[in-house]
Specification:
Helices cover 39% and strands 24% of the residues. It is of the alpha/beta class. It has one domain: Vaccinia Virus protein VP39 (Rossmann fold, 3-Layer(aba) Sandwich).
Length: 257
Amino acid sequence: MAWSASQYLKFEDERTRPARDLLAQVPELPPGPAFDLGCGPGNSTELIQQRFPDASVSGLDSDENMLLTAAKRLPGLTFEKADLATWVPPKGASLFYGNAVFQWLPNHLDILERLTASLAPGGTLAVQMPDNIDQPTHVLMEETARSAEFTDAFDGRTIRRNPLSAPSVYVERLSQHAAHIEVWHTIYYHRLTNAEAIVEWVKGTGLRPYLDALPSERRDAFTTAYTDRIRDAYPALSDGRVLLRFPRFFVVAVKSD
């Protein structure tokens, strides 16, 4: 799946707000390296470096474009290409931080449990994941893909990512390694210019797998059909803008001493 740092950063302020909210709940760190997992273009890595200036912070991502952008933004830090599904975490890390990445990995509960076990005593696992596949933005992607105009292109394939487990599942899975666990949801309401802006937002994330699955000559038609549905689902406010409802799920687990 191809990613675009420039597309992602069109809404940098809005995308970085949950990263800040997650980091605000991370306690002081013990000695040990800190990792921004799925660092993207480095916006969240920059926050970690600012919050913990004495920590050795590294960013990991699977996408070359994101890594190049992050390295240009933060030339003094280390950024490495890695697949989080198979990456072996080092023992004794002070922080594993993942902002809007683990929702893409179907086995992410196994990965989060492994990461927590690898932390240094008193270290923190901090994760934020969009919990929005029941929102119109994502329901309408699947509806458009299954419409008569495009069903042949997807050939019965399900592109939609898996829903998150219940919060209690995360608590149960991480509690054997963590002395303290916090889980919560926050719903963000982003006031965007119009329906087209919502489409531009999801082009950087959830819509990307659908467009990548299509031949290039059919992507514009898919985007147009999807935009028409979004326009109906998100009526304009009195000032002409639209309100994008965006639920996100947070986990902060502190390793036992």
